[in-house]
Protein 1
Amino acid sequence: MTTPDNIATSSSTSPHGAADPSMRDSAALPNQAYVEHSEWLKERDLVIAKTWAGLGFSRDISQPGSVYPVVFMGLPLVMVRDQHGQARVFHNVCRHRGMQLVAESGDAGLTIRCPYHKWGYDLSGHLKTTPNIGGMGVHQVDGFDCAEHALTAVRCEESMGVVFINLSGTAPALSEHLAPLLSRWHELAGPAFDQRLSADTSESGSMELVLKANYKLAVENYCESYHLPFVHPDLNTYSPLDAHYNLTVDPLASGQGTRVYDLSRGDSEPLPLFPDWDGDRLKTAEYLSLYPNVLLGIQADHFFVILLMSEAVDQTRERLQFLYADIAATDEAYRSRRESLHAAWSIVFAEDISVVEGMQRGRSSPAFDGGLFTPLMDVPTHHFHQWFLSRLEKNTTRAVR
Ligand code: FES
Ligand SMILES: [Fe+2]
């Protein structure tokens, strides 16, 4: 576990924490991990499938009957809110002739109906109706048992307003997987803040960007604060680089934090705060890349999540949702405060596009194949590469055996 404020424990005097000279000789991911389609599919099946990945937001399926199709690294999936309020994920393919079941998000009512021959599945994925299967007007036939043809489920759980999936079905429970991160933030934001965020279905702000880059470059850029003064000069005025610290949460996340995030951001007053936020750390804010594809930001008055939806080896859709510390922040009285917050973050995230896409272009060069990890500023990025490489190696070895 980390210390509350800073993972670093050496005698380094840098506010960022400890330098790690051994990183100089450490392996980084080669170019092919960012540019080759076959590597992208291998990564999906050997690395991402074995852990928990972000698929969508709890808000995408806000009501029983809500359906939301997602193509996840080439796999057609659909998120569903069942009649008991539980999130479910299925492969978005009809068991009959393989038609894509759900093409658009919306309310399916009690039945997900295939557009082709109108087979109907309930919200738990059970096949319930097979119109005309025995000839016109005959809806059953000998030798065919609906109970044998339910939709193929994908393991899913919710936390922090995100629907996570574990494609292999073999990872530890999500709460166990996230425990090192959640226990850290429970100390900061109060117990069960993550459950409250999952239950928040209010419309409180979102944005979407498409990056012409591999999703890992967005993870890596989010890991580090090194670029702050050069790429985000305005952010650096209310959250300056010299107050940042490196942050690694073993084994699942890394990033950075700051001790002087100005909650009012130049305005008169902040939004309502998390009720149990640590009063001694009102200006603490932390930004973690939760591997493989979820970026999280926590401040005393708001939280945001960015899902990195990898659409191709060199294209990523960033979906961002704001979640507020207190539901009262969604009141009309706070509209202008929310708008100024959204505007400030919109600038920051737009500023990152050119550097992330520039790194992608650089990965077509034979003069680069992994690059350098500097011993202080790149500690969180190095942590991500170590996570990735260790899992790729472990699961490749298993696959070969
Ligand atoms: S393909 Fe779905 S009902 Fe035939
Ligand atoms: Fe940035």
Note: Confidence is low (pLDDT under 50) at residues 1-13.
Protein 2
Amino acid sequence: MSQTPASVLLAVGGGIAAYKSAILCSRLVQLGHCVNVVMTKSAGQFVGNSTFSALSGHPVPEGLFQSSKHPLGAHIELAQEIDLMVVAPATANLIGKFANGIADDLVSTIYLQRTCPILVAPAMSSSMWDKPSVQRNMKTLREDGCHVIGPEQGWLSCRESGTGRMSEPDAILGSVSQLISRGK
Ligand SMILES: Cc1cc2nc3c(=O)[nH]c(=O)nc-3n(C[C@H](O)[C@H](O)[C@H](O)COP(=O)(O)O)c2cc1C
């Protein structure tokens, strides 16, 4: 797959599917994109930031307040000059924050700060996905112009099948390519 190189910000939420985002990160880099990764605190319970810094080739900021590395604020500096923000996995919590303008950590603050297109890849149990509050928040995100991929139906880590599985890295890469080509 050949593609114009782009600057992609990959935001990783605290769900089991975070391990797939390491593959996504590596594949984006292999396609020639400049990838920066931001993680929620919960995401660090699933994949270490060393994995993402090594795969992306860029340090993963610890949080909002890293004044020595980002004097203007990590949310300002990282949101500048990115072509696409990808949120994978997008937890129910992140989706709720995005839909309601809550900016209480680096990922949710960048969401509000950025001006580029965004691709959201939700992942959660089917019980969470089916909740009216989550569906309301998803409707809001779509109305707000977010691009959404998945979730898919299939095996979930809670040991049942249902809707809530994060789309596979290849599918997300396909959407990333489309959005980048559209923006160029
Ligand atoms: C083992 C485990 C797996 C989880 N998987 C998910 C998940 O797939 N999706 C989700 O929305 N929340 C999941 N959660 C709950 C989130 O980690 C929790 O809501 C957290 O506050 C999300 O924070 P974040 O949105 O800042 O990453 C999981 C929690 C645990 C302990």
Note: The chain has a mean pLDDT of 94.
